[in-house]
C-alpha cells in the first residue's frame, strides 16, 4: 500500500537545514560562474535527444508525445543546452558561456540535482578544469581531481585487438593476463612523473593522446590530481580529455571536451546531492 505522504524511491526532498545548505551551495557556485562570464539557462524537463547522451538507454524514462515521437525526461543537460543556444536561440544571443541548476532523471524514479556549465565553441579543457578547481577551493573541499583521455582506451583496444568492454568495465585482471609490459606500466600511471615515463615506452599510436593528457594536466592548478589514462567513462559525447572529481565512493563532478552538431565545446556538471553529503561529513 502506498500512502499519500510517501514519495517515490530515488526522488529528492529538501527541508530545513538541508534546503538551506543546498541554497547556500548553489548560490556560492553561481556567483563564481557569473564572475567568470557565465549566464543562466533552464532547459525543458522533456527532451527528444537524450539517447545521444546516455550510454545505457535503459536508464531513460521514456514516453511518447502527441505525434507519437519518443520523448525522455532529461537525464543529461549538455547536448540540449548546446542545441537550444546554437539552433533555437541563435538569433537572440551570441553568448557562449552558460550555466544551469536543475535536476536530471533516470529510470525508474531517480532524481539528482546538478549545477553545470557549458562553454560553447571553446576547446581548452584546462580552462574548465581550473574553473572547477576554483569552485572546490571556494567551498573549502579538496577531493581528488582525476584526469583522463577517452581516446586512450579506444586506441589500446585497437592496438591489442581486445574488446573495448574490458576497458569500459575496468577488468584489470584481464588486462594483466595479456602480459604486455607497456600496458602494465600504463596501468600504474597516477601522476605527471609516471605519465612522462610511460610515454617513452608505449607504441607510437598512443603517444599523441598521452602527450595531450600530459599537457593539459600540467596546466591545471590544483594540489590533489590523479592521472588515470585507462579510465573509460559512461557519457557518450566526451571525445578527448575529460575528468571527474571523486571523494571515496562519491562522484562530485564530471566534465570534459565534446562535439555537438560539429561544434567543439566543453563543460562540467557538479552533483549537488553528493556535494552536500561531503560537506555534511
Automatic annotation (TrEMBL):
Keyword presence, DNA damage: no
UniProt keywords, alphabetically: Amino-acid biosynthesis, Glycosyltransferase, Histidine biosynthesis, Transferase
GO molecular function, one term: histidine-tRNA ligase activity
Pfam family, one: tRNA-synt_His
Record-level GO BP terms: histidyl-tRNA aminoacylation; L-histidine biosynthetic process
Domain of life, source organism: Bacteria
EC number: 2.4.2.17
CC annotations in GO: cytoplasm
Domain annotation Class II Histidinyl-tRNA synthetase (HisRS)-like catalytic core: ranges: 18-274
UniProt KW Ubl conjugation keyword: no
InterPro entries the UniProt entry points to: aa-tRNA-synth_II/BPL/LPL (IPR045864), HisRS-like_core (IPR041715), HisRS/HisZ (IPR004516)
SUPFAM superfamilies from the UniProt entry: Class II aaRS and biotin synthetases
UniProt cross-references to NCBIfam families, sorted A to Z: PRK12293.1 (NF008946)
Listed name of the protein: ATP phosphoribosyltransferase HisG(S)Z, hetero-octameric short form, regulatory subunit
Source organism: Aliarcobacter trophiarum LMG 25534
Gene: hisZ
